[in-house]
């Protein structure tokens, strides 16, 4: 994300080496390799938030791998049918998160699809919740606790970005309001008006 640069706000602006060509309305820069030079400041902020979510998701997947590996070493599960079913479910949930990350990556490029981002983030947060529920069944509590903390941090980050995206969409009758966002809006209303 370090190479992403916001587009200049007005033609001829000296703030950045990227500016709009008045003849055809496209963005030009000194270097054609300026990845993300066509992002506005708000779009750049969203891209950085998505990058953070991807980073936290990778940390969660690494810890999940560690939990599974150590659970297999320590427990030597006898009933492989139930354990294998659990692992297959975890695999499908992780694949769903991978699809979500791909969708987020596609949504980051202009024009950013904020509603689709919110829906994707909501699905990812739900998948993380299901992963937590499955992993809590493992008996390796020391590793599960660290994994649980990582997952909760990821879920909190996803929720924060959902709120930020919802604010950016602005008031509209057709926006996607998740249950958490409804609760958040409820809390913002003064108690005397509830």
TrEMBL record:
GO CC terms: nucleus
- All residue ranges annotated as the Cyclin-D1-binding protein 1-like C-terminal domain in the record: 32-132
**Ranges of Acidic residues composition bias in the record:** 13-36
Listed Pfam families:
GCIP_C
InterPro entries in alphabetical order = GCIP-like, GCIP_C
Name the segments for region: Disordered: 1-37
The protein's name in its UniProt record: Cyclin-D1-binding protein 1-like C-terminal domain-containing protein
State the species of origin. Arabis alpina
Question: What does the record give as the organism's lineage?
Answer: Eukaryota, Viridiplantae, Streptophyta, Embryophyta, Tracheophyta
